[in-house]
Amino acid sequence: MTRKPWILRIEAGRAIVPKWLWRLFLFACVYGIYYILAYETWLPRDKEMIAQFRAHRAEFEEVVRRHRAFKESKYSDKYPLLIGSSRPTRKR
After folding, report:
1. Contact (CB, 8 A) for 66 and 78
2. Tens of pLDDT along 28-62?
3. Residue 78 within a domain
4. How many domains, in total, are found in the chain?
């Protein structure tokens, strides 16, 4: 006598995986996502950020200088999105 495949041996109306196991799995997933979002930091430590800033301070100051020069140039009205506003300004 040959055995039926497992899929055919499942009784009608009976779940393959019990509900309590699904609930436990769902709880573990939700808790895992909460833990990752709440407790994992995506930014480097303060000391690393300060060291990075100090190492590239000249580059940062150059970017700030160019930005200020562009804001004062004749092109700042032509390209308002490049200087940080979210919408083009209307001329009245």
Report:
1. no
2. 999 999 988 888 777 888 899 999 999 999 999 99
3. yes
4. 2
Strand ranges, E, within the chain: none
User: Can you tell me which residue has the tokens 């393959």?
Assistant: 16
- Residue 1 belongs to a domain: no
Query: Residue 78: CB partners within 8 Å, gap ≥ 6?
Result: none
Distance CA 26, CA 32 (A): 10
Give the domain range for residue 31: 6-39
What are the structure tokens assigned to 41, written together?
Answer: 């930091």
Residues 60 and 35 placed together within one structural domain of the fold: no
Question: Tokens 């480097």 map to which residue?
Answer: 44
Global model pTM greater than 0.70? no
CB 70 within 8 A of CB 82: yes
